[in-house]
Amino acid sequence: MASTREIDVFLAGVERRAFKHALFATQDQHAALDIVQNAMLKLVERYAGKPAGELPPLFQRILQNAIYDHFRRARVRDFWVRLVAPVADKDEEPGETLEALAGHSEAAGQRGPEEEVSGRQRLAAIEKALTALPARQRQAFLLRYWEEMDVAETARIMGCSEGSVKTHCFRAVNALAAKLGEMGIKP
């Protein structure tokens, strides 16, 4: 059974990455924050009695289900909004970059202004390329390479076969490489 301290440490360590997962999926900062908060609450309410080692895959599954639920609710809400009001306002705010969410590293203070700007532009390009991926490819890519989960864990979280995870990851890597290559970013 995970202690309160272990759960707190786990949630503190995963919150920024979870936010980026939700933000990439929803393209809405406020919705992403709500999704992550709800996923964290659900983990604590329902699975606090689980061992600490089981928390990462459980949380990822809860997070992915919360994202799916968001889109289901949005689809129903949009149907009714279109019947009532023909034009809906969307408040678009620019999202944070990976660097801003990760905080400034010690090395960032030692880099020159040109390198700093170049690094930020590269991160923004990578985020843009990730956002352009189809949802399942983006989900598989982030779980496998960002969350560092193995194929079996990723398949359980995504609710598909291990072969599908491998296919989604392969396609995501190729699409990202092509898109970043067009932008002049080499691996």
Walk me through what this model shows.
By secondary structure, the protein is mainly alpha-helical. Helices cover 74% and strands 0% of the residues. The chain is built from eight helices and no strands. Helix 2 crosses helix 3 (55-84). The longest helix has 30 residues, at 55-84. The protein is globular, with a radius of gyration of 18 Å.
Helix/strand order, N-terminal first: HHHHHHHH
Question: Structural class, from helix and strand content?
Answer: mainly alpha
| pLDDT averaged over residues | 82
N-to-C CA distance: 42 Å
Q: Let me know the number of strands.
A: 0
Nearest-angstrom radius of gyration? 18 Å
Query: What is the 3D form?
Result: globular
% residues in beta strands = under 5%
The main sheet comes to: none
- Spans of at least 5 consecutive residues with low confidence: 83-96, 104-109
Number of helices: 8
Helix share bin: over 70%
Descriptive labels:
single chain, 187 residues, mainly alpha, 0% strand
Outline the fold blueprint:
Elements: H1 4-26, H2 29-47, H3 55-84, H4 98-102, H5 113-132, H6 135-146, H7 151-158, H8 162-182
Helix pairs in contact: 1-2, 1-3, 1-6, 2-3, 3-7, 5-8, 6-7, 6-8, 7-8
Put the structure in a nutshell.
With 187 residues, this protein is mainly α. It is 74% helix and 0% strand.
